[in-house]
Amino acid sequence: MPPPLDRKPMNVLVATPARESTPGELLEISAGIYEELTWPERERALYLNEYPAAEAKYANNARARNELIEGHLRPRHTHILWLDVDLVEVPADIVELLAEVSERDIVAPLVLIERNLRFPPDRFYDIGGFVQDGKRFELYPPYCEGGDLVDVDSVGSCYLIPAEVYRARGRYAPIGDEVEHVSLMGQARGMGLRVYARRDVVVRHAYLPRFGLSWNG
Q: What pTM value is reported for the model?
C-alpha cells in the first residue's frame, strides 16, 4: 500500500444520487448505512432526481453525479465516498478500510450481489464500472488479475475519491454505452492518481427484483 500522507484530517462527503421513484425501502436502507458509518467527520448528500430518458445509457447517471458534486461539494470536504442508493450491505468502517490503502488515490471495495435465490453470493454486480487493463471484471471469482489489492482502470458503485479531482473539473462524461465511472477515472488517472480495488473488502448491491425493480446487473 502507498505510504500515508501528512495531510489535514479527512472530511468526507457521502454522496448518494437517487431517482425520485426509488423505492422507500432502499432509501431507508441507504440512510441506515450512512448512520452506521464509523468515520466521524462526514456528512451526507442525498440527491433525488428524475430525468427524461436519454439516448446514451448512462448519461442520466453522469448528469446526476455531476449535479450532486456541483451542488454539494464544499471547501471543507477533502474526499467523496460514493454510496449508490441500491447498496444494501456496507461495512460500517468502509471509509477507514478504503483510506488505509491510500488517501490520495481512488479506492473501492468489490461490489457483489446480495444473497438471493437466483444467483450465488459470489456473483459480481458492477462489471461495467470495474475495468482492469481495458477488460471488464468477470462475473465470478477471481474476477480479475492480482492479489487482495489490484491496480485497475476504473471502479464503480462505492469508492473513496479525493475531492481535488472534482475541483480540477473532473466530471462524468460517458461515451456511448460506457458506464459513467470510466470517463471520470480516466481523467483522474490523467491527473496522476491511481485507481485501486480492494478484493478483501466487499459491499453488496440489492437484488433489484426484491424491491419491485427490473434486473439490470
A: 0.94
